[in-house]
Specification:
This protein is an alpha/beta fold. It has one domain: Aldolase class I (TIM Barrel), CATH 3.20.20.70. The protein contains 12 helices and 8 strands. The longest helix has 19 residues. It is globular, with a radius of gyration of 17 Å. Bound molecules: 1,3-dihydroxyacetonephosphate (13P). The site of 1,3-dihydroxyacetonephosphate (13P) has 14 residues, from strand 8.
Length: about 260
């Protein structure tokens, strides 16, 4: 069975103190459940202390929101994967639509970041998703498959198995408009089929594919109950324990 994940992406929110308080609250109040994981993608300033807090559990992990592709060098303001690894980071978001849009990150650059992360055994949470314009024009499936192809499908089977995918339609991010459960299921199925075509059914069945875009307590359960939706990557609703905890609880659990 593939892992079900509730991941919070704090984006550029929370000062140092507020952030650590939220990590502590999530760690204390979320319950470990078989086959599930909670991941908090915090700003860089929180990472090291957040990791220390999360270490007291086995079900809460901490992610960075970005990394640079180079090992080191004259890249003022950037953070390398080796640096993240040196403080115990285990996950990193790569290719969030805000990085693609505001920082001009291309599919090719993201392929380099993915490889850099894997080289330090950090798990990429690779984000993909189309704009409203593309959705309205009806070629969103082709667009998303191309993102996967350009940034991930050069990986070996061994490496691809380590990837987590997050489908986040740009029109649903921070807008309050959520993809319907059917819309999410439809494209998640297409994503899984594209993986199966490239890497075979077993790897496709084992790849966690998250949905992101206005996930909230009221819609999480319906979204997460879709066959090919393995949890969520949550922005706004992950900034408060009272809204993120019910989303964590909406994850389907596997009973062995
Ligand atoms: P919202 O949940 O605020 O729509 O953000 C989604 C997102 O971008 C998570 O990475």
């Amino acid at each position: 069975m593939r892992l079900k994940i509730a991941a919070g992406n704090w984006k550029m929110n929370k000062d140092y103190q507020e952030g650590l308080e939220l990590v502590s609250e999530i760690v204390q109040k979320s319950k470990p459940a078989t086959g599930t994981l909670v991941i908090l993608a915090t700003p860089y300033i929180h990472l090291k202390d957040a990791i220390n807090i999360a270490k007291t559990t086995s079900h809460v992990k901490i992610a960075a929101q970005n990394c640079h592709q180079a090992k080191n060098g004259a890249y003022t303001g950037e953070t390398s994967i080796g640096m993240l690894s040196s403080i115990g980071v285990e996950y990193v978001l790569i290719g969030h639509s805000e990085r693609r849009q505001y920082f001009r990150e291309s599919n090719e650059l993201l392929a380099e970041k993915v490889k850099a992360a894997l080289s330090e055994n950090i798990t990429p949470i690779f984000c993909c998703g189309e704009s409203l314009e593309i959705r309205n024009e009806g070629w969103h499936v082709r667009y998303v498959k191309n993102q996967l192809k350009k940034s991930l499908f050069d990986l070996s089977e061994e490496d691809f198995k380590k990837i987590i995918i997050a489908y986040e339609p740009i029109w649903a991010i921070g807008t309050g408009v959520t993809a319907s459960a059917q819309q999410a299921q439809e494209i998640h199925k297409e994503i899984r089929e594209a993986i199966a075509e490239k890497y075979g059914n077993i790897i496709a069945e084992n790849t966690t594919v998250l949905y992101g875009g206005s996930v909230k307590p009221a819609n999480a359960e319906e979204l997460f109950s879709q066959k090919d939706v393995d949890g969520g990557l949550v922005g706004g609703a992950s900034l408060k324990a009272e809204t993120f905890l019910p989303i964590i609880e909406a994850l389907p659990t596997t009973h062995s």
